[in-house]
Amino acid sequence: MAASSYDAALARLLVHEGGYSNHPSDPGGPTNFGITIYDYRKYVKPDAIAADVRAMKLEEAKAIYRAKYWDAQRCNELPAGVDYAVFDYGVNSGIGRSGKVLRRVLKLADNTSAMTDAVIAAARAADAKALIVAICDERLRFLQSLKTWSVFGAGWGRRVAEVRAVALAMAAGAPSPDLGRAVAPGRAAVPVAKGAQHGSAGAIAATGAAAANQAHASGARPAVIAAIVIVALAAAISAWAFWHWRQSYQQQAPA
Question: Whole-model pTM?
Answer without folding.
Answer: 0.66
